[in-house]
Write a structure and sequence with these properties.
A two-stranded antiparallel sheet has the order 1-2. Helix 3 packs antiparallel against helix 4 and helix 6 runs antiparallel to helix 8. It is mostly helical. The chain is 75% helix and 3% strand. The chain is globular. The two termini are 37 Å apart. It contains eight helices and two strands, in the order ααααααβαβα.
Length: 224
């Protein structure tokens, strides 16, 4: 049993990261931003992502950058606790988390679209994991905007600024270009970012489908 699990993980290198992303999505209703508890939970989830990403055969440069970002993140959280400052250190913390997420996103996309043979399930899982991680990246961007522009987004159902849960939800529906209209961007920056996220989401799906079709076609051609 244990041997089979090890073989599955070794052949499906994106599996630990995808499982952690599922956990991150499931825990999103219980997260927030604006105090040290939420900052700590965001940091712990990000550390988990970075630890799982190592399984993707990351380079030495990735390890060094992750270690440096981790040190900056920990020091920023400690400074936040000691100094009780608001926007400045929170901005540093969320920028560091954003850097880590973007680095992991690069690894996932590189793994999903690499030319060497991969199990189809591993390729699809890493591509979908990258898509979900895009939603977390844009959620971080919206949090940074909200820190400096508190009225950048408005929940028309409650007429209040959104929480982390509603920002993540807004990021997901914008990435998938559904747009229910219950969360509205109110400033120029938030509107441009929302539009660009929709463009990125559409482009990602188009590239993913084209890549999978191309690989399936090349396999059929090589077998004939």
């Amino acid at each position: 049993m244990i041997t089979q699990i090890k073989q599955t993980i070794s052949s499906h290198r994106s599996l630990p990261l995808c499982l952690w992303l599922i956990f991150a999505v499931a825990s999103s209703p219980f997260r927030g931003f604006g105090d040290w508890r939420n900052l700590l939970s965001a940091a712990l989830l990000t550390f988990g992502l970075a630890a799982c990403a190592i399984h993707l055969r990351a380079s030495r440069r990735f390890h060094i950058s992750m270690a440096s970002a981790t040190v900056i993140l920990l020091l920023s959280i400690l400074a936040e606790l000691a100094l009780s400052t608001r926007v400045g250190l929170e901005t540093v913390i969320y920028l560091t988390i954003l850097f880590i997420e973007l680095s992991i996103l690069y690894l996932l996309i590189k793994h999903a679209f690499k030319s060497e043979p991969l199990p189809r399930a591993d390729r699809i899982a890493s591509a979908l994991g990258g898509y979900v991680l895009l939603a977390f990246v844009w959620t971080g961007i919206y949090i940074l905007i909200t820190l400096h522009q508190p009225n950048a987004f408005i929940n028309i159902l409650t007429n209040e600024p959104p929480t982390y849960q509603t920002l993540f939800y807004y990021s997901m529906i914008t990435l998938t270009t559904q747009g229910y209209g219950d969360i509205l961007p109110q400033t120029t920056l938030s509107r441009y970012c929302a539009g660009f996220e929709g463009l990125v989401g559409t482009f990602y799906i188009a590239v993913l489908v084209a890549s999978l079709i191309n690989q399936a076609t090349s396999k059929e051609n090589s077998s004939t």
